[in-house]
Every structure is written in structure tokens, then in C-alpha cells.
Amino acid sequence: MDDGRSLVLRRHIDDYVGTMNDWFLTNNIWSQYNVVSTEGKRIVWERLEELVRKGELEKQGQRYRRRQKGRKLDSKADPLDVVVMNWPRSLDDSTDFGLDQVKIFSKAIIIVSGVSNFAKTTFCINVIAENVDNPHFKVKYMTNELADEELVDRLSPINWVDLYDEDGEYRFEAIEKFDHWDDEIEPDFINIIDYLDPGSEFYDVGNIIDKIKQRLGKGIAIIAIQKGVGKYKGKDGKDHYSIAQYGVGGQFSEHRARVVIHLDPTDDKGVVMLTIKKAKGIMSGRKYTFTVIERGSRFHDIQEVYE
Predict the structure, then answer these.
(1) Over its length of 307 residues, how does the chain's per-residue pLDDT go in tens digits?
(2) Which end of the chain has the lower number of beta carbons within 10 A, N or C?
């Protein structure tokens, strides 16, 4: 490739990089500019690596992304402009978790950390049900666990609200998603991720959550995360639990969160403990027990625990 064509290709690379806000690969540039020769591909790689060394690009594995500038904060923002949403509750006995007293602002990350099969999905689908008629926000639900049929089954006992339109389609957006959740974030929605599984790269949870937060506008993200647990028989013959202090990723899973909720088993069979581990105001530290009924779709008998 002569110097003139090489210079043109480098300009194309710079133009491409300047328009990209998301991650991309070298072969995206090859396809965009029909780069097929070994020499041309080498020039693309060398230019991208040069931009990484200059600090204009960041690199993660084989992916590149233009470094993002900081967002100027609005000094005239209205502190009364809070996120208006409805929280899960028990319809049978009108009990709740007191979460309506927690003030939530735009771009908030809410972490729901819990042991497997102890109400994380119940919490998530109840957020859907409570907000499907929310005039301020639409709802998007991302799952890596429930197949099409299982989600329909889990939702079927929810009869206090219409989850389907006249054509039988969901009145909220539901997708299957296993990674790169930030690609699917709707900036002005209530986004629900059930659940965030970083695989073997658990140490990267904080970065994954940062990317999700950066995609938010007026909306929020509710992110379910697994916690580790050990079960053993006590001297009383009952099952007892040794529960991890944090979800996957340790304390890094909670750094960006404005609200952190933990869902843990108790020594009483079928009874779950919800702890508001982190929140602004008087609700931080509050604890509630509850049971789950109707095939894991509804909360029941929510009671505050006083210690």
C-alpha cells in the first residue's frame, strides 16, 4: 500500500473512531472501508494501538472504545425532580417494605443482592407489575434465567394489573440477555436486569455497573446479583445458613448503588429477610421478613423486624 492510500486509510480510521461511542472491533473498520489486504489490516491495528497509547482510546480484550468526556452537571437541576415509581408490596394484607420513603433520583443504580431461589426474580417481576401503568416511565426487563414459557408462567398469578395489551403482547419490554447489558439500557426507562452474571470475571462487576450507569438518562437500573450461601444442620436439627456479606463482585457490586437491598434466607423455613442495606434517609438498615406465594409471584405477610 503506497503512502497516499495509507494516509487516506488512517484518516478513515480517525473518522470512524470519532463517530463511535460504543465498543468496536478492528474487523468493524475492515468491513466499513473494505480493508482486505494484510498490510491494510496491519495499518488499522497499528493506528488503533497508537490511539490507545495516546489515551484517546481504551482497550478491553479485542475491543476498543473512544474515551468518554465527563458530563457537565446542571447547576439548575430541580432537587424535587425525583423518580416516581411504585415498589413491590403484599396485595393480600396491604403490607410493604417502606421503600416508598426512599428518595430516588435519575440515573440511580439499585442493587438487589440475594441467594439463589430466594425472591430476587419475585422482586423484579413485582417491580414490573407495579410500574406497567406508571405514567412517567416505561419498563424494560432483561433476563438470563427465564425462558419464554417460564416468564409467562411466573407472571400468570399476577391478576391485579393488566400485563398484556389487546393483542396479547407484553405491555413492557422483555428480552433475554446474557452480557453487555449496557447495550440494551433504555436511558429513560425503569431497566431491570435479572440477573447480572459476570461469569469468571467477577472482579469486573464494578466496571460493568459503571457502563450501565453511563447509559442512563432520566431512568434507573435495578440490578439483581447472586450471593453465595452455605447450608448446614444445626444442633437443633434445623437447616442453618452461612451467607456471604456481598453479592458476586464483593463490595464493588455496591459502590455505585444509591440503594442496596439484600434478600437472605432465615432459619424459619420459607421465610425470607429483606434488608435495606443502603439508602438515603431513615430507611437504611431496616429489615423485613416475608414469604412468597403463588408460584413465586407474590409477596405475603411483610413484617418489619425490630432489633
Answers:
(1) 566 788 889 999 999 998 887 889 999 999 999 999 999 999 999 999 999 999 889 888 888 988 877 788 889 888 888 999 999 999 989 999 999 999 999 999 999 999 888 999 999 999 999 999 999 999 999 999 999 999 999 999 999 999 999 999 999 999 999 988 999 999 999 999 998 988 877 778 988 999 899 999 999 999 999 988 777 777 787 777 788 888 888 888 898 999 999 999 998 889 999 999 999 889 999 999 999 999 889 999 999 999 7
(2) C
Same domain, 118 and 14: no
Q: Where are the alpha helices (DSSP H) in the chain?
A: 3-19, 26-32, 38-53, 120-131, 148-155, 205-214
- Long-range contacts from 41-46, C-beta under 8 angstroms, 24+ separation: 43/1, 43/6, 43/9, 43/10, 43/13, 44/9, 44/13
- Give a yes or no: residue 78 inside a domain: no
* φ and ψ of 203, to 5 deg: -65, -15
Q: Does a structural domain hold residue 21?
A: yes
Report yes or no: 7 and 1 within 8 Å, Cβ to Cβ.
no
In 3D space, the residue among 167, 95, 161 whose CA is nearest the CA of residue 127 turns out to be 161
Rounded Cα distance, 77 and 61, in Å: 38
Model pTM above 0.90: no
Number of domains present in the structure of the chain: 2
Cβ contact 273:289 at 8 Å = yes
| Terminal alpha carbon distance of the chain | 75
260 and 118, same domain (yes or no) = yes
Q: Is residue 76 part of a domain?
A: no
